[in-house]
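> tool_call: predict_assembly(chains=three)
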Amino acid sequence: MTTNQSSIQHKSDIPFYRDERVLQIIAQVVSAVLIIGAVIWAIMNFLKAAEARGMTLTLGFLKEAAGFPISNPPIDYDPSMSFGRAFLVGLVNTLRVSVFGVIGATILGTLLALARLSTNWLLSRIALAYIEFHRNIPLLVLLFIWYFTVFAKLPKVQESIAWPGPVYVNLRGFYITWPRLTETSQPFVISIGIGILLAIIVYVILRRRREIAGKETHYSRISLGIVMIFPLIGWFLCTGSPLWLDVPILEGFNFRGGLRFTPEFAALFVGLTMYTAAFIAEVVRAGIQAVDRGQVEAARAVGLSTGQVLSLVVMPQALRVIIPPMISQYLNLTKNSSLALAVGFQEVFSVGKITINQAGRAVPVFALVMVTYLTMSLLTSFVLNLYNRRIQFVMR
Amino acid sequence: MFRKTLPVIAVLIVLSVIMAACGGVETVTVVETVIVEKEVPAAAVETEIFDRVLARGKVVCGGRTDLTGFGYLDADGNNIGFDIDLCRAVAAAVFGDPNAIEVVPLTAADRGPSLQTAEVDLLSRNVTWTASRDSQWGNFTTVMFYDGQGFMISKASGITSTDEFDGATVCVTTGTTTEQNLADFFRQNGMTYEAVSFEETAAVYSAYEEGRCDITTSDKSQLASVRSGFAAPDDHIILDITISKEPLTPAVPHGDDVWFDIVKMVMYGLVNAEELGVTQANVEEMKSSENINTLRLLGQEGDWGYTDLGLDATALAQAISAVGNYGEIYNRYMGPEGIAFTLPRGPNDLWSNGGLIYAPPVK
Amino acid sequence: MAATEVVQETKRPPQPPGLLKWIRDNLFSSWGNTLLTIVLLPITVFILFSSIRWMFVGADWRVVTQFPLLYTVGQYPRDEIWRVGIGLSLIIFMLGASWGKWGGLLRSISIAFSIVFGVFALLPVQHPELDLGMRLYLGANVLLILVGYWIGRIQYLKGGHIVIGWSITPILAILFLSGFENSSTLPAVGTTLWGGLLVTFLLAAGGIVLSFPIGIALALGRRSSLPVVSAFSTIFIEAIRGVPLITILFMFSIILALFLPSESRIDRLVRSLMAVTFFSAAYSAENVRGGLQAVPHGQIEAAKAVGMSNFQTMLFITMPQALRAVLPAIVGQFISLFKDTTLVVIVGINDFLGIGRSIINSDPEFMQLQVEVYLFIAVVYWIFCYLMSLASRRLEAAMGVSSRL
């Protein structure tokens, strides 16, 4: 581009309007003035409009009572709490569906990629059909299909489907029997924590030792053992059972108890996961195909099993190609969760929109929503890029 | 990558600092604008919206296309309904042409912002007039429909009164007063509920009809409208309880008193026409009526203020001949032979018939 | 799982082997594969069979067949519908002319369009909206493509003329659609009445055409040596890529008006178009930047050495190579833009999906037929997106992209 050549030709007899350095400075000043000018002009217009129509621009209203309900809030919430709290509920909902979605989409996407590469023609075609179906249909249409034609058509409460567990499925949600901690569960929880911590330490130490000494130290088996034994010890240390089974029962209008997912959450989760999985499948497939075939053959030749070839040779190399596009898929999933308002699930954007309507402060609320998403995106890509850099470094 | 995101993060931080310090920023701007305001001559009346309407040759109405009776589409895709007719009346008064309107379909949550940003000239989309909306959204003209919030339940649920509501699931539209009234109602009665809320009215009732909720709640007129559209209307009951006051009122953006007055005058004109017996059919012959009030209404005698507002003398006559008087509009959609559904006039009858509809005299 | 055998996708053998051998190789090559096939085959057959049966027996397609005009043009006044027809015909004619001039991919597109028009013109069903006039119009479009083709073949008609034609026709079509105030022949039709596929295509085509140059400018801006320009471009790109499209749409449809002088009022549809455009531009910019980075520095030095200016180097050396390198990514971006236009439903614009939803809501009876409506909409989107990716693959092959990457 325009760099670094000016110094060669620069002579004192060049008029200033042909001197590239001067022109560059002028260009910068002009563009800065234009852009900043436009921004200031917009802000002036806005302040004028805000004053004329009596709009307030502070975030103070966040402390006022929200007055609107949120369905099945993940953290304690009722309409008498503040707008700020409602916003927090929305944020937790966004994070919840994004985290679940990322995990689900990664698993499903990887399976699809493997299916796509299978030597079984039928399996490979089914995977292809799945991928082509999801990649070419707008997510919003898929969400409408999932919510209005699948989850909203589940049987009524009185006619719930009962699966062993028991798990009850009806159009008010999925109710799953779920273990919950009792009051005397402290030793159990603490021992799980210690177990996980210890396992990580042992894993790191033993793994390093193997890398140095070159001897098999069984690091993964030993740390897995630690993770399993400690909770058992904790269980016996408790005076009673540390867990109790929360079984959903039909009471009044609805089921109570158990772990519950609303149909709105389920539709969003299933839609997002299945949609993103199609894209992840293509990413993973490209990554696996990028691994040189000679590598696989060489690994076979030294006697590694199919599983070992995949986990020790193919995947580590494929990850280098996979991680960067994977990051953008994860970010897409998080951002796409904002379509939740179409299926009645209250996350950040949806809560923001309700707040705008109830409290009337469009601009501050909107700025808050934008900043929240931006922070989330930047933090995620920052953390994942750190991981990416580590992987790329180790591999080379 | 991080180096590239760094400036963005920096901007973010600056932004959040500004937002956090917004209180301080705001006071500064207020001082500035006060100074600016003093330079503007106080006598000049702002006619920003009305000028814009005249220049455009059309009234832009915030409306809806999904509520039978109030704002919906006919078979040819034309906008019709009670709220739409009010908008047409204003267009007829200003331009003599009831079709000089453009209906912008708004969701419940878009009503406030579209009025604040003056995207619409007139919001006629069954909006409840509340004190906070009046101060934040715009100017509310005059109540054109007295409504109240009620509950609809399915017969199958076995509920007969609100005492049995504890633990129920309720379908409701987000961003409405309904949503808040609902929360207040349950809180006051010490009952719990689960809300399922959608932005789209149609989604709310579709979810209710499927059985996602035990109860749905809204303005009673809306419930009646929706129930009439159900596959089996008789399976649903609208409970005989009203938990709130919902005065549905057309509103205009803040800052243009002339436009505010014009819309009010048209609304008053429609009500007075019914009181004086002026109908769509007889408006021409009424122009030679004996009744002096009728003559004033139709612009045949005296000036009720049309000169000051910049309207024709026959502005109200044009409105009435375009859409009929208040009662005619009501009956067109909700009367005994209404094309949408039937709802007794009740509080929406003229004051002289025991209702609440009352308008200042036109003189 | 048999899939763990990591194999490059098998290239098709030069001569098709016998059917039995193919089945043995692809379905029953090992124990695992045999088991998999035995499990999957009945499931697949069952699903295919029951969905086909549902399509022809169970489904009620009234919600689709009753409203062809609503799906295509929305609330556009029926008396003025001929204006949409003229707009479409203009584009069709240009397509035919381009086919005549350049052939290749355009040939397949033109033929596909002719077949679709022809089939609808001769469809052996009674339908109130498919009257004789409509059939004649559809048939005339097939002729128009051929006439265009013939004109495109004329020797002294240069490619430049057709490019000029392409830049004028959309403007003409839009003028035809929107009409003029105070005109009796072409009365103004507000965009609130536009809807259906018309709006979807307008948003998608407008977004693609407008976002691409902005994207290139942003990419160049971000790589610029001028720190101010590069900082602004970077902030713009990263800020837009960091938030969901729906927030940007919402910003343009609600908040933007506050930041403009109060007397200005930008049309609702245009505001949505702006939002889609800026959103897509930020993503295009990153794609183009990737392409710019892939161009070897030696190319630029060589161009300099033969005395090309910076501008010439960019225009004739760097940009063509960069764009060719990232063609698949760019087309992928266009496809996702096309899909993303559905989000305008949330800000109250009746695009193709929005019309489907209002049809569902228009009659309580249709409430039960949501599956049919959404499947129809999904299939239409699927066809267009799939065709776009197919065209992209053909284009890549023609330009030799894949062989170089």
